[in-house]
């Protein structure tokens, strides 16, 4: 009898165990994801890389399975809009939509308020989306007027103004400055110019003395004349972008309306008329200035660039052998107007992701708890330990050892996370600075603190040539004492969402206004428009809705916390 009972008990326990196992398997949460193919590597190929399995295991540890639908990149918006129209949106998707479309999704109840999901967080994501977390700036930018947060973006912690700390990557990567040929100055026994008049004089001297020896008067300053993000505009106190946030005053700035604009245009015309600025160069900091096909790259190879707006800590990839570019002073271009600088200011947010209101909030929380971890950040930045990176046992420093070239990835089946998925169907990692364990957190409260840090002395100062370090130190000292504008357009990086009324105002006015504003700048510099008619041109801007659009963007900034 006892034996029979014992056997029955064993069988019962076995059945219960199977039932519990089946129940646990059934309780795995699922989140459907819409993404698009990465350039050069298909989603099928991505899934053959070992790092992909590691990532899926991360989600599985949070009881989550991701169900991917991946389409061609050029079809993504079409497919996304079709799923929205059908009412069958994916649970998670990259919200490459207009501001009006985003607002309409919120108003129609089709998007999840992320805070509703964070109620199920294990504490990881709920902290990172709090006031003290790395996604706090995303909350500022993506909170709608009803108080709900329906989107979140890729976040980077950068330089802050005042007392907030800032990360090292923005300092090391975005130290933009005007640079001039020091070796040419030395050859002519000339000092580095400190006024705009001296700049013109030196540029003329370079041509007069045929410094590149080709018999042509082609030694010149290379600038982006179609925007204000060019360094010289900042000598005249101008913001680098239209409606840029002034961190000192809290105001949205429109360069054409700022003091110093008239003097800036006059100086640019002076450069053009003197033949030391070529309008045909079509230089842009963002258009691949280091490539052979770019105007700046071509001029570099011709040894014709006397001065340009570049990175103080790095030589131009195509500059001639023996050329030495030194940082120029922060020149005051107009009397009574202090020069400004472009740096990476504060947190910044780019891109945007959203969840359908039909998604399981527990699955959303599990997803966010995964991507907010240090492990996810390591996976994105370095990959898999022993496979794509090593950790120095003494210093604790991480060293990436694999290749980012797609052909190498496909051959070796090893890669870090970034080239596999980022911005195609998963967001970037928000963590920053954690991997420099030897140096501690890479955040400081001033440029001086940064220059005094072990990280600068032992990692940065030993990794670059002496003249580049000298340029960089000078740049940091300028940045310490100068008013700063954000290196990126604040409207896209930090400004809160529009209301529906504001979006309608922008939709009504912005296209024609932006077109005229752009044409006005170009025509003033090339001489088609007269400087004497500036007031009339400004009145035209107002007639096209400048004040209405300006007010909308100021209202956005006013809502920042």
Automatic annotation (TrEMBL):
Keywords: Signal. Gene3D superfamilies: Periplasmic binding protein-like II (3.40.190.10). SUPFAM superfamilies: Periplasmic binding protein-like II. The keyword Signal applies. Residues 1-24 form the signal peptide. This is Extracellular solute-binding protein.
């Amino acid at each position: 009898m006892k034996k029979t009972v014992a056997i029955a008990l064993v069988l019962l326990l076995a059945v219960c165990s199977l039932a519990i196992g089946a129940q646990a398997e059934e309780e795995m949460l699922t989140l459907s994801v819409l993404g698009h193919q990465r350039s050069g590597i298909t989603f099928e190929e991505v899934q053959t890389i070992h790092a992909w399995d590691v990532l899926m295991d991360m989600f599985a540890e949070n009881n989550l399975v991701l169900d991917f639908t991946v389409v061609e990149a050029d079809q993504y918006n079409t497919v996304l809009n079709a799923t929205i129209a059908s009412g069958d949106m994916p649970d998670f998707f990259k919200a490459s939509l207009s501001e009006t479309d985003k607002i309409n999704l919120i108003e129609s109840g089709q998007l999840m308020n992320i805070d509703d999901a964070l109620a199920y967080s294990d504490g990881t994501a709920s902290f990172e989306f709090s006031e003290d977390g790395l996604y706090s700036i995303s909350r500022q930018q993506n909170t709608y007027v009803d108080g709900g947060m329906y989107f979140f973006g890729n976040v980077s912690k950068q330089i802050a103004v005042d007392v907030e700390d800032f990360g090292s990557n923005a300092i090391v990567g975005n130290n933009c400055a005007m640079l001039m040929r020091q070796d040419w100055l030395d050859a002519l026994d000339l000092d580095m110019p400190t006024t705009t008049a001296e700049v013109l004089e030196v540029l003329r001297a370079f041509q007069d003395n045929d410094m590149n020896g080709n018999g042509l008067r082609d030694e010149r300053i290379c600038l982006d004349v179609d925007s204000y993000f060019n360094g010289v505009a900042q000598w005249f106190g101008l913001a680098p972008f239209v409606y840029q946030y002034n961190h000192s005053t809290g105001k949205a700035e429109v360069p054409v309306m700022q003091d110093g604009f008239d003097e800036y245009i006059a100086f640019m015309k002076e450069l053009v008329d003197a033949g030391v600025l070529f309008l045909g160069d079509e230089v842009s900091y963002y258009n691949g200035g280091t490539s052979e096909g770019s105007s700046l790259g071509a001029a570099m190879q011709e040894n014709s660039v006397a001065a340009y707006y570049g990175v103080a800590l790095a030589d131009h990839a195509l500059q001639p052998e023996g050329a030495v570019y030194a940082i120029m002073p922060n020149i005051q271009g107009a009397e009574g107007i202090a020069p400004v600088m472009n740096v990476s200011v504060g947190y910044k947010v780019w891109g945007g992701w959203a969840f359908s209101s039909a998604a399981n909030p527990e699955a959303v929380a599990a997803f966010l708890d995964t991507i907010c971890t240090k492990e996810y950040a390591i996976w994105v930045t370095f990959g898999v330990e022993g496979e794509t990176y090593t950790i120095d046992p003494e210093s604790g420093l991480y060293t990436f050892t694999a290749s980012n070239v797609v052909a190498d990835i496909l051959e070796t089946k090893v890669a870090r996370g970034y080239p596999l998925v980022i911005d195609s169907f998963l967001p970037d990692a928000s963590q920053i600075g954690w991997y420099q364990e030897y140096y501690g957190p890479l955040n400081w409260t001033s440029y001086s603190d940064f220059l005094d840090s072990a990280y600068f002395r032992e990692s940065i100062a030993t990794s670059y040539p002496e003249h580049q370090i000298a340029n960089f130190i000078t740049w940091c000292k300028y940045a310490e004492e100068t008013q700063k504008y954000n290196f990126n357009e604040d409207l896209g990086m930090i400004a809160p969402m529009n209301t529906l009324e504001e979006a309608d105002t922008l939709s009504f006015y912005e296209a024609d206004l932006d077109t005229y504003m752009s044409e006005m700048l170009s025509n003033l510099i090339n001489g088609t428009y007269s400087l004497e008619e500036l007031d009339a041109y400004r009145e035209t801007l107002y007639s096209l809705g400048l004040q209405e659009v300006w007010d909308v963007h100021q209202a956005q900034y006013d809502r920042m916390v």
